[in-house]
Amino acid sequence: MSPAAAAARATSFAANFTTSTAPSSGGRLLRPFRGNPRPRRAVASMAVSAPKSPAAASFLERRESERALHFVKYQGLGNDFIMVDNRDSAVPKVTPEEAAKLCDRNFGIGADGVIFVMPGVNGADYTMRIFNSDGSEPEMCGNGVRCFARFIAEVENLQGTHSFKIHTGAGLIIPEIQDDGKVKVDMGEPILYGPDVPTKLPSTKNEAVVKAELAIDGLAWHVTCVSMGNPHCITFGSKELKVLHVDDLKLSDIGPKFEHHEMFPARTNTEFVEVLSRSHLKMRVWERGAGATLACGTGACAVVVAAVLEGRAERKCVVDLPGGPLEIEWREDNNHVYMTGPAEAVFYGSVVH
Ligand SMILES: N[C@@H](CCC[C@H](N)C(=O)O)C(=O)O
């Protein structure tokens, strides 16, 4: 597509979206919304209520248009995603440029990313792809994969506990919906070898980059680098600031300087962490491609790995994020990291493109 055509297409996105608020789930799986007389596809839950005015009638035409994209907005601890049912195709239904438009909180729907539920490959049940709010494509998303599991249960009309094998850019990820509606995810093994994270910082402990020095804004930050499929740089402070008070940080100033630092060839997510106890951590995150978000699942996992490597915490911790707590465990027996937390639908809508 030419840049001009892409721009025109993206503009029509912003001008033509409609939404409807989801009925409260009360912590349970949402049922299909009943106002839809004739759902276009099997995903009845993406429908909207019946029109009552001429304006609403023209909305109906748009909804039934071939170009309508139906979505469900999900959130996990305030990390929010536009979920797209892409089960019938291995090609995402929106382009990275369109995704960036849709994620815009003023001119679009507003979200930290767009997630596509796609057919599985290599024996996996499904494939997850995600575009960040800047249109870049990360390998993995922890809060996103919990939303992904709940969204699958919704569109497949599954009740109770279920687990799925999800193919992602970070390999096979296994979320399990628990009785209480929370999702526990086997996030696989952390990657600690510097060039694979990737970071150009030299290793300091075996092959890992632990408490290495990184100069930013006149401070010598102590950073540990961990990949959970996607890159993370974790800091508990600097030579000058021994202890961080994360609420005092101006993330929008400092975050981009980590994200775009030359030591991180694929850019990086950055977690700023305060140790409340050996099993209780508090963090704020600046995400690659999305900026300050209310939560980051892969980030919370990476934080616990870094805290263990630096001798600051036990392997099982509660991690407080601005959007709420996650339970994280880095198991010694299999080296896998497990993350448990909530995910829920927020609203349903459609957008014409
Ligand atoms: N919020 C996510 C991470 C999303 C991807 C990240 N921005 C990246 O580019 O790596 C999470 O919950 O893990």
How would you describe this protein?
There is one protein chain. The protein has 353 residues and is of the alpha+beta class. The chain has two domains: 3-186 and 343-352, Diaminopimelate Epimerase, Chain A, domain 1; 194-335, Diaminopimelate Epimerase, Chain A, domain 1 (Roll), CATH 3.10.310.10. Helices cover 19% and strands 34% of the residues. The chain is built from six helices and 19 strands. The chain has helices at residues 3-15, 54-64, 96-103, 142-155, 251-259, 297-309; strands at 17-21, 68-76, 79-85, 113-119, 126-132, 162-163, 166-168, 171-177, 183-186, 212-216, 219-227, 231-238, 269-277, 280-287, 291-293, 316-321, 324-330, 337-341, 344-352. The protein has a 19-stranded mixed sheet that branches. A hairpin with a 2-residue loop joins strand 7 (166-168) and strand 8. Helix 1 (3-15) packs parallel to helix 3 (96-103). The longest helix has 14 residues, at 142-155. The protein starts with a helix and ends with a strand. 45% of the residues are buried. Bound molecules: ligand LBFN2T5F. Residues 79, 132, 138, 141-144, 230, 269, 287-290, 293, 296-299 line the site of the ligand N[C@@H](CCC[C@H](N)C(=O)O)C(=O)O.
